[in-house]
Design brief:
The structure is a homodecamer of 91-residue chains.
Chain A lengths: L1 E8 L7 H20 L3 E7 L4 E7 L3 H9 L7 E10 L5
């Protein structure tokens, strides 16, 4: 099932640079592993924002929560989740 | 170039049924023609809403405006447009 | 899977009384049939509002959309949908 | 009497890990004791959020306030309270 | 138990004058009967608004809902309900 | 003249405990002195919030400002002030 | 005592032209009479809006309510009222 | 002096087609005359909206108000006005 | 030309007391000098708020920006600016 | 293609003065280089705000994102991006 998710990142300006670099590196690996698994089917950067729009394809709302909760950047994110379904005009 | 578009539809309750049916039929044909042309690359229904989330791939902002402005349901829609670009973590 | 749904009803003041009575009667029957089926697991009135808070237990987001879209009062409702999952402190 | 309560948690990023662990442990025990007593009748996690939706069944608004005020995480929460009553369509 | 209630009135400009006068008269009588019964303990006009702030003292949230739902002006009102309890500094 | 005032308190989590205790003690004494004087005619706790709803009866807007400005918790409060007058339905 | 008042006017597009002209004429006379009396001490047009910002000097909140409630355009206005007092830096 | 102005147009769906066409034609002529005079220095369409973003260069706020107030579409517009000045980094 | 300006002050609670006292003293002198010059024509305290409503009479938007930008408290203020003009009903 | 961009700056009050001066100097040089290149076609100061309104003319949304993301003040900015196109009334 599909969910539309937005993630806005707000890193504290005084975050230790090494912690920041390590967190961003883990975030990228985590994101790409989920893309490889076909769970995180789209991720786009929002122009001019430290934010993304994503589409997830998961087996349950609970699986989506586990994925989002464990994002390395989760403590610094504002997240919205919108359930989607097939549009009658979609080919 | 990619744009994230949301469309919320609010049809007046006293809309003539024949006009409504004809407008919805033209909207569906218009939407599917743009999907065929590869311009309207995704359309999803938002669960519980008379609304969709869409992704457009167009040659210019002006082309996107022409497409949206000519939607048969445009006079009854609230539309948001968000420009997207490649996310550094996208595979 | 569980979804939290709020429904705010706004009936036009000039709605024909017979249409109104018939619609409300169909709404009640529809709601109670879904409660019987175990799909609409809770419905509470919000004090002082023409609104309810509900919990649905459905097989998919698409099934929830079909249920909500076919509510007799849907054209007069503002609906919000929030996906839920198990809380780690729940017994 | 029933109340719908939402709780959004926002822990400061620099919270001492031991304090955090101890507070979360007390919060869980406190929550489960109230579930055992039949006061906190439902708690669900909101997908993708450090938040819950809950239903309380208490003897008075004052009792609900005492319960919420003494939540170990209360200083870090944004709380909303909505009084509920029986819906005429509820079975 | 005490509830803080706000009521904002928005009468349609084309309301029939006789209907309007009759509704306002019933509203006033209804309001004063509840004051006599000690249910509607305070009602103040908000300066510059067609609105009031009120305090109700009722036996249950359900009783409050019945009172508000049956206000002759209820279809034209936006209502908010806030549960109150004793303040520790109150004498 | 009557004013409806709401006060939302947001104490910084790292406030020194002795400072906090002393400030709260002064706040309570200040509040009760004004109740004794008949200036602060009602104070109710909002259920589930570190907030109150109050009614003041003062001689002028300027007197109300002096009272609020000198609240020991004023620097930590978000305050709203709404002027009230007699409602035509009030007994 | 001084109050800051904003008035936003929203006339229905189908208002009868004679009714509109007569209402605007009464509004202007009403406004100027109150200026003459020293009650309506300032009125400014907000640039680009059918709106004004005004300062009233009245004897009580109740008097201000009477003045605003009887504005010929009151049924078409959104009004905000803010009590003012002397600023310590004012000369 | 420069002002940033946004105009959102909301035409009633039941507007008489001849009135609509005539109003739009007058709006266009009015807009182009002001461009010719160097008063309306920029006008851009907002993609996906019946709205524009404009820059005006006028002699006074009062002149800007006269221009906006007399727009043929003014009764159907939501307008915002923001005063601008030279940016220290502008070349 | 006239501008309506609101200023909300939010001083950090840990501001050094000497810095605070010196800044407030400079703010007051700056404000009164501009009143003497006829630039800052009105300043009122908003009751119950660390805020003011002001009217400025300046030669240009740029002059107003210079005045506001150089307020000693500017870094701690939220400011709104609304251009005004003559109201047709003003005497 | 054209984009309307707003930038609101919020510098932390405890920013090191040397860091601040160096960042502002880099920001100005960066901004002026993009003006020289014809990418940043307009920048105006919003009166009374630490904010600007800008117009960019870029080859793609991705190019705009690179420009904004690399602004020296980007970590301290709230940015909005609105795609524009030709208005049918523009000369």
């Amino acid at each position: 099932m599909l969910f539309h998710v937005t993630m806005d990142v707000d890193l504290p300006p005084d975050l230790d640079p090494a912690t920041k670099a390590e967190t961003l590196s883990r975030e990228k690996a985590y994101c790409q592993r989920l893309q490889d698994q076909g769970k995180w089917v789209h991720i786009w950067r929002v122009v001019g924002q430290y934010a993304n729009v994503s589409i997830f394809d998961v087996d349950s709302p609970g699986e989506l929560h586990e994925i989002l909760w464990n994002l390395p950047l989760f403590p610094f994110m504002t997240v919205t989740v919108t359930p989607l379904c097939r549009h009658p005009s979609a080919l």
